[in-house]
Design goal:
Strand content of chain B: under 5%
Helix content of chain A: 40-55%
Strand order of the largest sheet of chain A: 3-2-1-4-6-5-7
Radius of gyration of chain A: 16 Å
Oligomer: heterodimer
Number of strands of chain B: 0
Largest interface: A-B, 20 and 14 residues
Shape of chain B: elongated
Structural class of chain B: mainly alpha
Number of helices of chain B: 4
Helix content of chain B: over 70%
Distance between the termini of chain A: 35 Å
């Protein structure tokens, strides 16, 4: 089973070296999609040993992930994992997302901060609900309902960037939206192709760095509108 | 009336623009016909305002004068054109992404 970790980045020069190193220390192949960064993100990623795909113009989060997906499929990887470039995710948890796919229990596995069921791995704990800022938490709940209405899939978390796919599943999924609405679109497609989805608990670290990099709450709300618009004219 | 003269001059000017754009193949015949018709109709309305008054009565705008009808249609048309522009821009955005993606993957393969 060959596994590849896709890390979309935009101006992450400060963090990307350590993020790539931490993922590689678990023995995974890493491809960084540098989405038109204006700093030296791509050099840092190369220095850390990642394959770097470079978008000359910033095209957005979804576009970067799709580029990584296409590359991974072309290079015949079996499992493809999406991982954030700002150090929010824990590389040690990648195996929890990959396992259900390797054991063919699921086609797509999505990380959740709020999962309530007992985690498959008991000493993993309960995700990191306590650390999620309150406004963000309300917005996430809204996004969960939104996702549920549109796709019929009820998740415990929304817009979590930590995902794993089997290559077979990823070949079916074709996301056209370039921006953050990718996260909604991907769920939509999972429902459309009736792929087996599973959630596993993950911890998200809200550091001052990741908060300053993250999108504002208002922008997060616009993502929903963008998704509907994209659906209408696709 | 002065307003009629000015508008007719503007309309004639815009019609010549449509013609020259068609000649230089910047727009196709269908587009040229569409814009030509629009400006032609504007010209007619300006020259014979009574005509639209009749039309307004015919479609059932009782209190309204013809000019109101013209404004309604103009607003609707403007909205439609904005929508088309939005869709068009979106398509261009997607095409740009495709090109950027192609280059990114190609660059990596060529190394």
């Amino acid at each position: 089973m060959s596994i590849v970790i896709i890390i979309p980045t935009y101006n992450e020069a400060q963090k990307i070296y350590n993020v790539v190193k931490s993922v590689m220390s678990y023995g995974y192949d890493v491809v960084v999609v540098d989405d038109g960064s204006k700093d030296n993100t791509q050099e840092q990623a190369r220095r850390a040993g990642a394959v770097v795909l470079r978008h000359y113009i910033n095209r957005g989060y979804g576009a970067a992930l799709s580029t990584g997906n296409q590359w991974a499929i072309k290079n015949e990887y079996n499992v493809i994992v999406h991982f954030d470039g700002d150090g929010q995710h824990n590389a040690g948890e990648i195996k929890n997302l990959v396992n259900p796919i390797i054991r063919e229990k699921a086609d797509v596995v999505i990380g959740s901060r709020f999962i309530k069921e007992p985690p498959p791995n008991p000493h993993l704990g309960k995700g990191g609900e306590g650390s999620v800022p309150i406004v963000r938490r309300v917005l996430i709940k809204l996004a969960i309902v939104f996702t549920w209405i549109f796709s019929g899939i009820k998740l415990t978390d929304a817009h979590n960037g930590f995902r794993a796919f089997s290559a077979r599943a990823l070949k079916k999924i074709e996301c056209k939206q370039d921006g953050m609405s990718y996260a909604s679109e991907v769920i939509d497609q999972i429902a459309e192709y009736k792929l087996r989805i599973q959630e596993v608990p993950v911890t998200i670290e809200y550091t001052d760095y990741s908060k300053s990099k993250g999108e504002s709450n208002i922008k997060k709300m616009l993502v929903g509108l963008k998704f509907i618009w994209g659906k209408l004219i696709r | 009336m002065l307003i009629q003269i000015i508008t007719i001059i503007v309309v004639l000017f815009l019609l010549t623009r449509v013609g020259s754009k068609l000649k230089r193949k910047e727009i196709n015949f269908k587009e040229a016909f569409f814009w030509g018709l629009i400006w032609f109709l504007v010209g007619i309305v300006v020259l014979y305002p009574k005509l639209v008054d009749k039309l307004a009565k015919y479609v059932g705008l009782q209190s309204a004068t013809g000019i109101d009808l013209v404004v309604y249609i103009a607003v609707a048309l403007a909205f439609y054109l904005i929508f088309r522009l939005f869709v068009h821009v979106e398509r261009i955005e997607r095409d740009i992404t495709k090109i950027i993606r192609h280059i990114a993957i190609k660059d990596e393969n060529d190394k």
